[in-house]
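User: These chains co-purify. Model them together.
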Amino acid sequence: MASRRGVLVGGLAAGALVVGYALRPRRYALPLPPGRDEVAFDAWIKLADDGVVTVAVPQVEMGQGVTTLIPQIIAYEMGADWRRVAVEPAPPSPLYANVPLASRWAELTMPAMPDALLGDDAALVRRWAQDHTFTVTADGTALAAYEGPARAAAAMARALLCMAAAERWDVDWRECDAKDGFVVHKGKRLPFGSLARAAAALDPPRSPPLRDAPPAERPGVPMAYPRLDLPAKVDGSLVFAGDVRLPGMVYASIRHGPIGESALADYDKTAANGVRGLITLVRNRGWIAAVASTWWAADQALTRIDAGFTSTDRADSATIDQAMETAMQTGTATRLAERGDPDAFLTGRLPLQLRYEVQPALHASIETASATARFKDGHLELWIGTQAPQAAREIAARALGIDVAAVTLYPMPLGGSFDRRLENDHAGEVALIARACQRPVQLTWSRKQEHIVGHPRPPVAAVLGANVDATGRLGGLRARIVAPATAREFGRRLLHADSPRAAIDAVAGVADPMMIEGAMPPYAIDHLAIDHVPVRLPLPTGRMRGNAHGYTAFFVESFLDELAHRAGREPLAYRMAMLGHDPRLADCLQRVAVLSGWGGGADNSGQGIACHLIGSAESGGRIALVASARRDADGVTVDRLSAVADIGRIVNLDIARQQIEGGLIFGLGLALGCSTGYEGGLPVTGRLASLNLPVLADCPAIDVNFITSSAAPADPGALGVAAVAPAVANALFSATGLRLRQLPLLSEDV
Amino acid sequence: MPRLTVNDRAIEIDLDPVTPLLWGLRDAANLTGTKYGCGVGDCGACMVLIDGEARRSCLVSLAECEGRAVTTIEGLSRDRSHPVQQAMVAEQAIQCGFCTPGIVIAAAGLLARNANPSDAQIKAAIPNLCRCGVYPRLLRVVQQASRAMRGNAAAGATPVTTIPSEGTPR
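Assistant: Joint model of the two components:
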């Protein structure tokens, strides 16, 4: 996509100074020092005398399988025995800087830098990410960021082990190999454990050789790397942040004020008298917490107190809708991407213009925000699951007025997140509560609090317009997308510690390229223009799985489908005709037609098709999807989803399949529910039951096929999310003749 | 003080008897495998077996559990050997794992009363919310566990799972 960063942010300031700064060398201490029986290889691997290989995983496990993927890469490269591989979540450290994400989020991380200095490998980005201990888990960057370093560390470990064995055998170490936890040479073998100390004492070769091929799994072979985290998940022994139990620990619940500028008003604390187990109340400007011997007692106390808040600028659907409408009608647009000559071909009213709308949507992860804290002698220990651990440390440190170095963070797994846990409000809250009650405390938000503070995916409105010639050929396409500058707003909260209101105000009126990602169609269309109209809303909004692709794919693929039908063209052929330049996406479409028994989507078949590309033509991920759906008494029933994805080389096939399946289900939730209105600063849907989330009984039959490829790996996590809403909408058009142009799809009826 | 049996051990829980079982398990007995997701019966993450029946522990008070036998995920088997646990791992029907204990309990409760459930019966018996989206694998999980429990397949051993060939509907 043609980026207009330079236009948006102005020229470079003080470039030479910045480059000089980038060249200063740094060394960092190992974040996970080896135990008495272990030796460490780089920041990634520890090898124990008994042969157990422990892998440091610097990304949070939230279901996406990263605690298997990174160890798999290391086990493969090192020649380790998968049954003897252990995992240790790594605390935030500059050694694990997520450089590709810092680069991808350059608009947020380094807004004053010109593109030329910000490639994935640019030293400047690396230095920024290291200096900010930027190890954020997001946007499917784990492989891009960590496969290389993890492989290099494993190759070094293997080389050292081979050298140690070769010394004993008196052979050339280059003739040795490592396999299943042994170094092997012509029938001889020595277990890793017996070589650990000798290997660690050697100097590694300058560039240890990598195995010939990177790790890759192909369909049809037995699963060699089952997930490492499942045994502990299936017996309840995996400890989430809310499962931590410390000596003397107590439990806290919390009530936040309505969404807006809220301050705690007076309340009657005697109302909580008689709640057995209540220990104390802790108040802050925007919230009140109760601490008790069980979470339930704490929550009961808060219910009885029913504290009031004074607030202004409350989030309200009427105000939000009005702001969206005004922005659509009269708001100033910034052109963020274009192709061809839009000024000549795409001005004024176009022959066909259609409007799409997306309601705010909640993440609804089943785990609510939870954190455990112990504050003693000026030092805070924090047990928390978070996608942005350094930000969590900083929030807690700021809340207590202590140095960030005085906050030790223990990374915990997440019970789903879907980008909700990129934000860490509860880290500061639990720190303050722990200090106030002078003992270890565990804070858990109630479901309703999760919905109040859970900055939703933003509302979005778009008008797509097209120029079509007499034969129905699509000559040009223009999109005017109205949305808050959510990514920038999130960036202010994450990186500048802005309050939700301050973040909204800081980015008001600024166009946001991350809000239109995926709007540039993958098709060969001569003239294209994508405009963003940033709108200020009285509602903080945030990142969510799929992000912009979760609505832009809906706009583009619904619109394309409608164009095809209006031109009397079969929807698959209509798309294929514009994909001559992208054989990989065309291949996905052709294969999904076979997989699904695509019948052309003709009247009443109930089949709908969609495809989408996330990322660049070279390294992006692709999906084509056919949905079978119908209207019935319950609303919408989706009977079948058939998907073909091309995500390049696949490290772990079943995890990739989980990601596509899960993405389709998550996207189905967004297509049919997850939305909420707001009244008086509160979400109308305080319960999960009112979100129309899919359950097993609603789950369509799902077939997922992958195209075998050696192209660069692309993340599968968002592909299903993006494709499912348009495929289902197009299927419902086929089934009913009605075009649904809103998400959730039946919101027009409500 | 409510007295009940939890995972085959008789215990007393020194809490207000109106406290939901969920919090007695989590905050008094430290059985944290039973999860809080909503507190009002919407999500199913807190399911436990009460006298063999899968129930949402957020909706049952400690007083109501007086004299009853509760089985939590920790007590379902000593070594993850319950056929539902085995099948969940073998099919990798787990992602973040937060809803997993509730789903395992729901499936175990179903199979305890119906060793050979139909697909419709499985769907009706597992109302749990899973946001990661493991649903496409759950029918296979319960069918596999059902076969194991009926002796048609070896239980206990780590099953060999094969990644299906392309074009093979799962």
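Chain B touches chain A through 70 residues (CB under 8 Å).
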